Amino acid sequence: MNEPYVKQEINNNIATIEFFHPAHNSLPGDLLAKLAKTITEAGNNDEVKVIILKSGGDRTFCAGASFNELININDAETGKVFFSGFANVINAMRKCPKFIIGRIQGKTVGGGVGVASATDYCMATKFAAIKLSELNVGIGPFVVGPAVERKLGLSAMSQIAIDANSFYEAEWARQKGLYNQVFGSLEALDEAVQKFAENLCNYNPEAMKEMKKVFWSGTEDWDQLLAERAVISGRLVLSEFTKEKLKSFS
């Protein structure tokens, strides 16, 4: 299992969307585009009542942006396009008329925390610690910030954004509202996610669609907001500070 992918399976009205990359499930631009497109398609599919979002492997949910792509950004427009990848996924999740259940099996970093935050109900293992590492390389969690703040609140989001070197345990993330439930094993997580998704399929799809609109009210400007945030990150990644930081990591 070394080839990157985004795949979808639909069984009994449940769409399971899974992404994978051999570099700790980091997400380069092409995978982010496929992920956004797949989420949008599932949302528009009348056969689908609920979506499970997961990643492959059993250790890391998502390591965030692709480091290899980050290093190779040399102009502001390329930077904007790069950082718009996570913005497009978050906006696809926000606009999707179906509830999205997040299945977070392990550590998640940077953009991965944004993806987890954009789910409607998030379930994790006790190994699913989180970290917003962007400030450590001279950027900042600008694009994913609104999604993370919406779930954790400004205080907790500020804490992990400033403390960019530290992982925060899954239980902390549960207490702050990112995770709704935390399980002791991957097996227990998968069983609970499946059972929860099956239960949601018994609800009125129209009621769930209207509830989702209510939950996401106040985010109607995110198409513009996240695009503006992508410009900030795209500019910062070109700074001498960030270039030197990236060299030290390579």
Provide the descriptors you would attach to this structure in a database record.
250 residues; globular; 49% helix; 9 strands; 2-enoyl-CoA Hydratase, Chain A, domain 1; single chain; six-stranded mixed β-sheet; alpha/beta; three-stranded parallel β-sheet
If you had to describe this structure to a student in words, what would you say it looks like?
By secondary structure, the chain is an alpha/beta fold. It has a single domain (5-186), classed as 2-enoyl-CoA Hydratase, Chain A, domain 1 (Alpha-Beta Complex), CATH 3.90.226. The chain has 11 helices and 9 strands. It has helices at 29-44, 67-71, 76-95, 111-117, 145-152, 154-162, 170-176, 186-200, 205-215, 222-236, 240-249, and strands at 5-11, 14-20, 50-55, 60-62, 99-104, 107-109, 121-125, 130-131, 181-183. The protein has a 6-stranded mixed sheet, with helices on both faces. Strands 4-6-8 form a 3-stranded parallel sheet, covered by helices on one side. α3 packs antiparallel against α10 (222-236). The mean pLDDT is 96.
Secondary structure layout plus pairing:
Blueprint: E1 5-11, E2 14-20, H1 29-44, E3 50-55, E4 60-62, H2 67-71, H3 76-95, E5 99-104, E6 107-109, H4 111-117, E7 121-125, E8 130-131, H5 145-152, H6 154-162, H7 170-176, E9 181-183, H8 186-200, H9 205-215, H10 222-236, H11 240-249
Parallel strand pairs: 2-3, 3-5, 4-6, 5-7, 6-8, 7-9
Antiparallel strand pairs: 1-2
